[in-house]
Structures are given as structure tokens and as C-alpha cells.
Specification:
Layout: E1 2-8, H1 12-23, E2 28-32, E3 48-49, H2 60-79, E4 83-84, E5 88-90, H3 99-110, E6 115-116, E7 122-124, E8 128-130, H4 132-145, E9 149-152, E10 156-162, E11 165-170, E12 175-183, H5 189-195, E13 203-213, E14 224-226, E15 237-240, E16 246-249, E17 253-254, H6 267-278, E18 289-298, E19 304-307, E20 314-318, H7 324-341, H8 364-373
Parallel strand pairs: 1-2, 1-12, 2-9, 5-14, 12-20
Antiparallel strand pairs: 3-8, 4-8, 5-7, 6-7, 10-11, 11-12, 13-16, 13-17, 13-18, 15-16, 19-20
Helix pairs in contact: 1-4, 1-7, 2-7
Length: 374
């Protein structure tokens, strides 16, 4: 098989990239190691669509979060992706530190609307929640309707430079030839890059564990509750889901094992007391489920989106952490510009063909855990 661009990985970033390129008339094949899209980091995302109010101004991650806000509404409407537009609240722990004031100033620099509440908390109206699996699958299916081919069970194990491009081979002996390769392999992006001789970055898994609750009777969580962030993490938050649950988390545990999707025994004690402080109805509630997500963190890098210096036909899209769901549409747009600079012609963007994401008998917050247990 031959394509102009091969996208490795059908998570939310790979699927958004494939859709963007396919809408611009590029022949695209998406190579996914698992049996369907969104069974790794994308399927265990919190589902929160961030505004970027607390993101560092001027960084690429922030620029792409902000750009995605302008791209998202027509896409989720056309693809009928569920979105809960509930807003968020940040409540200060220590009013004397004025963390909320600093966050408000940061939001103003990023052009994000925030409001001070009378109780000293910060309201962020634009924060929202989606189903991360439905979002990913909707993008993947839309890419297919625009001509992209999805090949599942294709774990890339070799990459050869040939005249006019690259040949990718799977563990099963299949091969795909393409002019360019876009590496959206998430946790395994560094492994894919090394197949092309690029050893310039390393990805490690940062585990985030979550607890899922049925909301206590007669109680309804109206918005996302955010703690004061730290330099390392946004902390434990509490948020409603599109399917009527309440989720608390995540933890932040740096690992070496990229296949460790287990929830640690101590995770409940690390999450539940903090969550109950933020939303007291959870104090006596028992979680109905728990899940862990592995975020692809980079050692000393964040949002690496650039052609490889070791292999000009390879574009790395790596170290895209938990905001990848939020920024995915803008990442796809950004990659399309790089692809054009590398010689692939982009045609006028075609209108997005509408469709609906498939239903699932399994809630998104159970899906990856059940898959990993097989």
C-alpha cells in the first residue's frame, strides 16, 4: 500500500491529524497498534476540555489549546460529540497567597474569560467536559469518511528509508509505503522515532488514577471543581461526566513501565479525602469504579511537534500530555502546515461530513481497563 502520509497512532491526536489532512485532500493511512482507536492514553483522559486560563502564555501548548477553542464547536456539532458545558471553579486554599489573582491575570494574558466570585473563588465559564472515547472515535470515523484508511493491529516494528519516502513494517509482516510519516504514537512515540534513527527524546508514563462515583442522592455537581495548581500538577479535581457520574482525580505518579495500567491500592486514600473537601457530598460515597491513565510525558520536553533532524521524512508529535484532547484539532492543523512545508500539496479544505460516534455498551471510563484485563 502507498499513501502520501502515514499517521502512526489512532489516539485523539493521530485521529485529529488524519482528519485534518484528509479534509485537505491528502491520501492518509492511519496505523494503530491496538484493535481500535482510543484504547490507550486518549481513552483514559479526564475528558475535560480546557480553556487554557492557567496555561503558560506564549508556549506552543498554550497556543494550540487556544486555537482549538476556535476550531472545536463546528466539529463537535457536526460529529454529534457529547459536550457538557458546565464551567469550572477554582477555590483558594489560602487567600493570603492570592493564587486566584495570579490565575486571573494569567487568563487575561491568554485572552480567556474568567470571573471573580463573591466568595473569592474564580469562575471559568468556558471549561467543559466530553466523552474522550466518543471524541476520539468520532474524529477517526470522520477521517475515514474523508478518505483516510485505518489499519488496526498494525504495530510498527521497522522503518526503512527508500527513494521518495519511508516503508513501515508491522510485527505481522505487513508493510506500508508513504512519502511522510507523522509519529503520533503517544507513549511509544520515542520507540517509533528510534526506528528511523531518531534518539533525540524520551517518553515516560505519568500515571493518573481516578475514582468514579454515582452522585449522592439529591445532589448534583454543577461544575468542574479545580484546586490550586502546583508547578508539577493541576492536583486532584472533581468533575461531572456526560453520562451522569462524578469523577475525582488524578494522582500523578511517574513510572517506567508503559504497560502498567493498574490502580494502586493507596490511590483511594490519596484522592478521596481531597475530593470530599472540595465537594462534601462525596465524604460518605463509595466509588463504583477506578481507572488509571498513562500520560506520555517527555523528559525535558513538552509538545514536541517538528520534523525529525535524523530523518527528514518523519514528523514527531510527541510528549503531548493530558491537554492533548483539548488541543488535538489545532495540533492537526499545525501538523498540516509542517506537512505542506515538506512538500505534500494541500488542497482547499472540504466541508466536514457529519456523522455520529458509535455507541458503546461499556462506559468510556471502564473501556480501557477492561481491554487491558483481556
Amino acid at each position: 500500500m502507498h499513501a502520501e502520509v502515514a499517521v502512526v497512532g489512532a489516539g485523539v491526536v493521530g485521529s485529529a491529524t488524519a482528519l485534518t489532512l484528509a479534509r485537505r485532500g491528502v491520501s492518509v493511512v492511519v496505523l494503530e497498534a491496538e484493535r481500535e482507536p482510543g484504547l490507550a492514553a486518549s481513552g483514559t483522559n479526564s475528558g475535560i476540555l480546557h480553556t487554557g486560563f492557567d496555561s503558560v502564555p506564549g508556549e506552543l501548548e498554550t497556543e494550540l489549546i487556544l486555537r482549538s477553542a476556535a476550531l472545536r464547536e463546528p466539529v463537535v456539532a457536526a460529529l454529534r460529540v457529547p459536550v457538557l458545558r458546565c464551567g469550572a471553579r477554582v477555590r483558594p486554599r489560602d487567600p493570603s497567597r492570592d493564587v486566584v489573582g495570579a490565575l486571573a491575570a494569567n487568563a487575561e494574558r491568554n485572552g480567556v474569560e474568567v470571573l471573580f466570585r463573591k466568595d473569592g473563588a474564580l469562575k471559568v465559564p468556558g471549561e467543559a467536559v466530553t466523552d474522550p472515547v466518543a471524541y476520539t472515535l468520532a474524529l477517526a470515523l470522520a477521517a475515514g469518511r474523508h478518505g483516510a484508511e485505518l489499519r488496526t493491529g498494525f504495530r510498527v516494528t521497522a522503518m526503512q528509508r527508500v527513494q521518495g519516502g519511508l516503508v513501515l513494517e508491522s510485527a505481522a509482516g505487513e508493510s506500508v509505503r508513504s512519502r511522510l510519516v507523522v509519529n503520533c504514537a503517544g507513549l511509544h512515540a520515542d520507540t517509533v522515532a528510534r526506528l528511523a534513527g531518531d534518539h533525540s527524546f524520551e517518553i515516560y508514563p505519568r500515571k493518573g488514577e481516578f475514582l468514579v462515583f454515582d452522585p449522592p442522592r439529591a445532589e448534583k455537581l454543577e461544575r468542574i471543581l479545580l484546586p490550586e495548581p502546583t508547578e508539577r500538577t493541576k492536583g486532584v479535581l472533581v468533575f461531572p461526566t456526560v453520562d451522569g457520574k462524578v469523577i475525582a482525580g488524578p494522582t500523578a505518579v511517574d513510572l517506567q513501565d508503559k504497560e502498567d495500567w493498574s490502580v494502586r491500592p493507596q490511590a483511594r486514600q490519596e484522592i478521596h479525602p481531597q475530593a470530599a473537601t472540595m465537594w462534601p457530598p462525596l465524604e460518605d460515597a463509595e466509588p463504583i469504579a477506578a481507572y488509571a491513565g498513562l500520560r506520555p510525558a517527555g523528559r525535558g520536553i513538552n509538545y514536541l511537534i517538528a520534523p525529525s533532524r535524523a530523518c527528514p521524512e518523519l514528523v514527531n508529535v510527541a510528549a503531548i500530555r493530558s491537554t492533548g484532547l483539548t488541543a488535538s484539532l489545532a495540533i492537526g492543523e499545525y501538523v498540516s502546515v509542517l506537512v505542506a512545508r515538506l512538500g505534500v500539496a494541500l488542497r482547499a479544505e472540504r466541508p466536514l461530513e457529519p456523522g455520529a460516534p458509535p455507541g458503546s455498551p461499556v462506559p468510556w471510563w471502564r473501556r480501557t481497563a477492561l481491554h487491558r484485563a483481556l
